[in-house]
């Protein structure tokens, strides 16, 4: 059977424990995962290449993530799906609010590409409260962020405080 590759797109600005948990769980469902770090969109805290570099560091450190690769991506998600011949896009769901946004995103992508599929994974209960925006807020005050983000991200935040 052909290898089943899924895309995991996001801003990951910065990567949190919630993001990594979704990726870990997705590796059990698909043969390969391409993490797509969004270059465009919302105002960014870190440049895309920095966010991608941190993902690579996290992936290298964990055998369970060996089937994952990382790239910076600009453009339409449906074009990335076509380019990678991906069978699905993975997104995490923390709340009904996430779901509303995700539902629209899925619907629009489906209009652009009728065979577009999203696989939604529910956030792990204890990680569902974590968001990149709250991490950015906490980072401003120089707190210990290890309960929220993986170690390389905590170190990078400590070494590179926000503007
Ligand atoms: P985007 O800007 O594309 O929403 P994010 O980096 O905010 O990118 O999120 C990427 C994906 O990870 C989204 O599907 C989001 O719902 C999910 N996600 C974010 N935080 C968590 C969390 N704590 N637990 C599980 N999934 C999460």
Structure notes:
With 163 residues, this protein is an alpha/beta fold. It has 6 helices and 5 strands. It has helices at 17-27, 48-60, 77-84, 96-112, 132-140, 151-159, and strands spanning 5-10, 32-38, 68-73, 88-93, 118-122. It has a 5-stranded parallel β-sheet with strand order 3-2-1-4-5, with helices on both faces. The N and C termini lie far apart (49 Å). The relative contact order is 0.20. The model has no long low-confidence stretch (mean pLDDT 94). Adenosine-5'-diphosphate is lined by residues 10-12, 16, 18-19, 22, 91-92, 94, 98, 123, 127-128, 130-132.
**Rg from Cα:** 15 Å
Catalogue the unreliable spans: none
In percent, how helical is the residue content?
40-55%
Pairing-aware structural class of the strands and helices?
A: alpha/beta
Distance between the termini: 49 Å
How would you name the oligomeric state of the polypeptide chains in this document?
Answer: single chain
Backbone shape: globular
Which compounds are bound in this model? Answer: adenosine-5'-diphosphate
Strand order of the largest sheet: 3-2-1-4-5
Number of helices: 6
**What's the mean pLDDT score?**
94
The major pleated sheet works out as:
5 strands, parallel
SSE order, one letter for each helix or strand: EHEHEHEHEHH
Number of strands: 5
Q: Estimate the strand proportion.
A: 15-25%
